Every structure is written in C-alpha cells, then in structure tokens.
Amino acid sequence: MDSTIFIPGVKQEDLTRIFKEFKIKDISELTKLARSKKIRKLKGFNSKTEMAILRGIKLIENQPDYLPIGIALDFSNILITELKAWPHISQVLLVGDLRRGVEKIKSIDILLKANYIELKDSLEKILLLDNEVSSSNKKTIYNSKLGIPVIFHFSSSREWGTDCILTTGSGQHLASLAKIVNTLPKFETEEEVYKNLNLPWIPPEIRETGYETEFAREGILPELIDINEIKGDLHIHSRWSDGSNTIEEIILNGIKLGYEYVAITDHSQALKMAGGLRPEDLMRQIEEINKLQLKYPQIRILKGIEVDILEDGTLDFTDDILNKLDIVIASIHSHFEMSKGDMTKRIIKALKHPLVKIIAHPTGRILGKRPGYKVDINEVINAAAQTNKVLEVNASPDRLDIRDIHLQIAKTRGVKIAINTDAHHIQSMEDMIFGVQTAKRGWQGKENIINTWSYDKLINYLSSI
Ligand SMILES: [Zn+2]
Ligand SMILES: [Zn+2]
C-alpha cells in the first residue's frame, strides 16, 4: 500500500490488509471495492468497514476546515510514532488544541525537542504531508492529506516548559498569563513556569477562557477527574444488538481494563436497523449474563438496556420488563425533526420515568456529520438536578455529548454524570479517555461522576433515584 494513504476512521492495519488482499493501489480503487461490497467477505470485516471507508474518503474529499478530535488524533499518532523513531529528536509532544481536548481540531500542533535545520530534509519526506507552507527556526507549517495543517514547533531543553505552555494555548489563557508577566520566563518544565508566576500548574484541558488563571491565583482550582479513577463502563453494546463482540469478550476486556463493573446495554426493539432486542431476547440475554456472572465473579455485570425514547416520550419497553434490569439508559434515535419545545418535553418525560437512570448522548450530535436535534439542554440539566438522574458524557470521539460547556453548567447544579463509551466494539472501550478529557474541560471532579464510585455505592444510588 502507498504509505501516503490515511482514511479517517479506518485503522491503518485494516487498510494495509485490504490493499494486500485485493491487490489494489489507490483510493479510487478502494472506493470501487467498498461500493462493490466485497470487503465484508474478508474475515474480521463487515458492512460497517465498507461504510467507514466510504465515509472517510468523503471526509477527505470535502477538505473540511476542522476535524473531529478522534480523527485528528489517529492521524497525529501515526506522525508521532514516526517522529519518535528519529535520532535527532529527543522529545515529542502533541500540543495545541489536541492537547487541550478541543473537540473540533483546526490544526495539528507538535512540539519537538530538536533543531529545525537538522530535521528539515527528513520532515519533507513524511509522506502524509503535502507541501511546506512556511518555515522558521521556531516553527514550520505543512499542508496535510487531511486538509488541515500540521505545525511543527521546535524547542530546546532549556525552554521546553515555556514552549509547552506557549504552543498549547489557548490564546485567551496566554493573554491571562501576559497580564501577570509580559514575557513568560524560560524554564525546563511547565510547573516551574507557573510557579514563577505564583500559580499552581494548570491542567491543559482547562486552559481556555483565562478565568482558570484567576481561579488558580485564588487557590480554588477544582481537582479534576483522572482516567485512573474510572471504575467501570455503563454503556456497551454486544453482538445481541449492533455490537461486534460477545458479552464474554466484553467482560474479559473489562477485567483487562481493571474495571470493577461493566453494563451491557443493547438497543431496544424500536431500533430495528441496529438489531434492537425484543422482550424475549432480553430475557434470554439476562439468563446468559447470570451464567457469565457466575463464571467471572471478579467483575460485576450490570444487566441493562439502552431503551429508545419514543416520539411521545414514552419508552420502548413496558415497566415489567425494565424492572428486571439493573440499569436503564434512555436515548433518542428517531424523530429528530421536532421543535425544540417538543423535543425537550419528550426527553424530560423519559428522564422523569422512575425506571430511567441515565439519559445517553443528550443532544444527539455527531461531530462533523450532524449537529444534533434541537433541545433546551438547560432544561434537561435542571430536570436532572431536580430528580437526581444522571446525564451521560458519551465518550465516543464522534459524539462527546454532553459537551464541555454543558458539563460546566451541570456542575454548578450538582448534576450526576456517567462517562460512558457506548462501545460497539471492545476496542472502543478505550475511548473512555476522550470522555474523561471532556469532563475535565467541564471542570468535573470525581465526586459527581458515578462510574468512579464503587459497585455498592453505584447500585445504592441507582436504586435510590
Ligand atoms: Zn444511542
Ligand atoms: Zn448506545
């Protein structure tokens, strides 16, 4: 395969395999192949692979002015792996918007502890990059195959910390520092720079509006959630609906991730396209989980459902079925074209249902694809606050829903949050990091995030609301 090929949303090793098996050479042949529906015949692939390829190709063709964070990160990781192998570079750090966890990425910024002159020729040979736009000893900018620029920043040991801060931004954060000192002092670490300004180190995810600097100065920065505090994942799909893995594979992966619990939450019957479960399927699934729970006592498996919220705000299953479950997540997958008032009422009606505990992906957006339905998220947050119900941060990098600014509002009202991956494949259970990053941007600490709690505390809480 031509190593200049990168398709957003498709893993490089999958692409390499497809190119090899079908002996194709370029993107136009790949497009034809995906359309001919032949890729699904290869072991390990299915129609979703073909869809992902076609969607990824379309995204590149459209040359967007921003990329969803997940895609930008996949692309950056390929670059970074290559750069880390080079002898002239002693340190590589992803900076800019990506380091701060911004959801729409307009440029990929990479800070290198290296000398530009020594690297110039090698950088030009990176096949994923196009032409150089501008260059200096401090930074050089390239166009990339994705449409958004890649900016390499150069630094030395002596001023590494200072350059980390300058290249991470945001502009408003730097402006807030400039009010304290005209030019940032040069130090090897970020901590030393902040300390010199009489500030604690400020996490990149909240270096945004400049207010964080005020909070830091007052000594009242919140303690932010850390990925190691996550004890489980409460929204996962199995092969019973549209997921790719068996429940046992999900359990084993949960154990591998060090989780105390996982919830199996497949779709309900209304979502036929996604293999939604009928009541009788759910009963059989419950039996399977009971058996697996005996086999794997080291992790708790919550029996759950992602039940569809129907057009009128009622649920896709009757109470006697939902009553058999440990956790009920409700969400919108249909009738997106409603007025804001109707949609808000619809969601709040579901949220107030006594058996519903979590509202999943509350605004329904897909980054780079659709903006989400119209909903008054403030009212949903208020309703969650009144009822002690939980709102989800959907950690899928395509969703990040609810988003950072809504999380800040939710925090002021004490709303409980669950950070869930909504994984349809066990690999996506690792998307948790994106949800945690979004929660950090929402100034969230572990106290309100229910999947940082122990199993007992979680179950007690869910049965109390
Ligand atoms: Zn969903
Ligand atoms: Zn889901």
Please tell me about this protein's structure.
- Strand 11, helix 14 and strand 12 form a beta-alpha-beta unit.
- This protein has 465 residues and is an alpha/beta fold.
- It starts with 11 loop residues before the first helix and ends with a helix.
- Helix 7 crosses helix 9 and helix 16 packs across helix 17.
- It has three domains: 50 residues, no CATH class; 152 residues, Beta Polymerase, domain 2, CATH 3.30.460; 238 residues, Metal-dependent hydrolases (TIM Barrel, Alpha-Beta Barrel), CATH 3.20.20.
- The strands form three sheets. A seven-stranded parallel β-sheet has the order 8-9-10-11-12-13-14, covered by helices on one side. Strands 2-4-7-6-5 form a five-stranded mixed β-sheet, sandwiched between helices. The chain has a two-stranded antiparallel ribbon with strand order 1-3.
- It contains 18 helices and 14 strands.
- Bound molecules: zinc ion (ZN) (2 copies).
- The site of one zinc ion has 5 residues, from loops.
- One zinc ion (ZN) binds next to loops.
How many structural domains can be distinguished in the coordinates? 3
**CATH homologous superfamily placement of the largest domain:** Metal-dependent hydrolases
Instruction: Give the second-level CATH assignment, the architecture of the largest domain.
Output: Alpha-Beta Barrel
CATH class of the largest domain: Alpha Beta
The tally of beta strands, per DSSP, is: 14
Q: Give the termini distance in whole angstroms.
A: 54 Å
What average pLDDT do the residues reach?
Answer: 94
Report the β-strand fraction as a percent range: 15-25%
List the bound ligands: zinc ion
Structural class: alpha/beta
Task: Give the overall form.
Answer: globular
Put simply, the count of helices is: 18
Low-confidence segments, given as residue ranges, are none
Placed side by side, the strands forming the largest sheet appear as 8-9-10-11-12-13-14
Largest sheet: 7 strands, parallel
CATH topology of the largest domain: TIM Barrel
